[in-house]
């Protein structure tokens, strides 16, 4: 019964924002566990296609680039249409594409809300909705389909950096995950969210460029790496995570849940 508990052999996945950072880590993780195909999408065609070639060369499965801007409902529908042209079903959807905006409270612009909320929240809902038919086609009681939304620890605690719309968007993703999970579990589709802390990426420049300094603020003493992120995503996507429904799992080296205890103990 425990054989191949974390295997993704033969499964087809889509990872949005998969050309770099956390999305690329997850795509690589899925391929490492036997996924047959992992589609990745990003706005920029060049980096998306380069990552697809790189990951295809490293693993037995195939990584396929679909460079599409999903910041609008039209873009979400276009991506879903492209997937459905190519695949009769979709086993795993990872909603990772996101953006951030930082500005002081008195100067924060409306565009800083609209851009962030549209991509980080609205697009997750409408892409999942557009791909529901493909997910239902893959889903069964014995092997549920999976939707994994990438939120953030900024949706759990208050980051001192003034990224108002980003924190609000990630809190929304956590709650939206719970609501969609309640609906789709009836169709044997398991929906969860991952809440990353510091992982090196173009979005998290502090983790990328000042890892040693940032590590001093993390109870685990380091920033997250590819193995950490891939491991959690594999767990949720595989049979091991079939009974984890609606959860928001922090992966942050203890920033959210261990820091307060350490301060008290100190």
How would you summarize what this structure contains?
The chain is of the alpha/beta class and 266 residues long. The protein has a single domain (12-202, 230-251), classed as NAD(P)-binding Rossmann-like Domain (Rossmann fold).
Q: Describe it for me?
A:
- This protein is α/β, with parallel strands linked by helices and 266 residues long.
- It has a single domain, classed as NAD(P)-binding Rossmann-like Domain (Rossmann fold), CATH 3.40.50.
- It is 44% helix and 14% strand.
- The chain has helices at 21-32, 45-58, 73-86, 110-130, 132-138, 164-184, 205-209, 211-215, 226-237, 259-265; strands spanning 12-16, 37-41, 62-65, 92-95, 145-150, 189-196, 248-251.
- It has a seven-stranded parallel beta sheet, with helices on both faces.
- The termini are far apart.
- The mean pLDDT is 93.
